[in-house]
Amino acid sequence: MAEGDSNSQTLSPALAERLRISEIFCSIQGESRSAGWPTVFVRLTGCPLRCTWCDTEYAFHGGGWRSIDDIVQEVATHKTHHVCVTGGEPLAQKRCLTLLQRLCDAGHEVSLETSGALDVSQVDPRVIKVVDLKAPGSGEHKRNRWQNIPSLAPSDQIKFVLADRADYDWANAVLTEHKLHERCEVLYSPVHGSLAPRELAEWILADHLPVRMQMQLHKLLWGDVPGH
Ligand SMILES: C[S@@+](CC[C@H](N)C(=O)[O-])C[C@H]1O[C@@H](n2cnc3c(N)ncnc32)[C@H](O)[C@@H]1O
Ligand SMILES: Nc1nc2[nH]cc(C(=O)O)c2c(=O)[nH]1
Ligand code: SF4
Ligand SMILES: [Mg+2]
After folding, report:
1. Averaged pLDDT, 171-180
2. Which atom of ligand 1 is nearest to the CA of 55?
3. 50 in contact with ligand 3, CB cutoff 6 A
4. For the domain 17-222, what is the CATH code?
5. Quick one: how far is CA 80 from the chain centroid?
């Protein structure tokens, strides 16, 4: 039996606390309100979605099983205050909730990048949740879990990643219908290489939208390469 696939009742507590990890690396946070901070990224393997434009398909499979103790220790070696838990879809592994708690207990400012397709209500309230609402251009808009919206605090963020004008119009309709900007910060980001950032900026200004534009800073710095 592959390590980590077995029934957790038969494992010692340390082994039962394992997560499948694609990579742990230190970079400049490129997304969300925390953009610019030196940050350690913990990328969990696996995702039940298949966004057409996903830049992290390499995290759908592979990686290795790591204990939560081991992950927290490796994060500490990078000496950063900020930690970002991402994937793949981090919440697809239930023990992600424990990892988030443990990283907060260790004194880090922890953010979670999540697709918005899974329940976020059990995430430690100290964690900053960055929750995507998938637009039609992703091919995964039917997976949006609208019940997540009431779980979001003012310190969380909702993110729309937009491939074209049709996605932008869809996001505006959702923004208005759910009054999202009254709940937390709302981010509009272009799909890298698909929607010209300047075009999105001009639409936001023309429409006087109460949203925050963002671009993936790490791709400006390093291009579209893993490990950054
Ligand atoms: C790779 S995902 C991992 C976390 C989670 N599965 C999710 O979708 O939020 C992290 C962030 O990268 C964004 N992203 C992925 N591919 C992108 C692309 N080609 N252009 C812009 N943002 C992208 C996602 O929308 C998400 O906000
Ligand atoms: N530098 C950098 N910042 C990021 N912020 C969110 C990322 C992600 O893949 O979730 C990411 C990433 O992959 N790299
Ligand atoms: S949910 Fe996130 S990791 Fe999964 S396919 Fe979409 S962008 Fe990629
Ligand atoms: Mg990324």
Report:
1. 98
2. 16
3. yes
4. 3.20.20.70
5. 18
Determine the atom of ligand 2 nearest the C-alpha atom of 30.
3
φ, ψ of residue 39 to 5 degrees: the values are -145, 140
38-68: buried (b, 16+ CB within 10 Å) or exposed (e) per residue? Answer: ebbbbbbbbbebebeebebeebbeebeebbb
What are the pLDDT digits (tens) for 114-169? 999 999 999 999 999 999 999 999 999 999 999 999 999 999 999 999 999 999 99
55 annotated ligand binder: yes
Helices (H) and strands (E) in the chain, counts: 6, 9
What percent of the chain has pLDDT above 70? 93
Amino acid, res. 11: L
Interface predicted TM-score (ipTM) of this complex, two decimals: 0.99
Cβ–Cβ contacts within 10 Å for residue 224, how many? 11
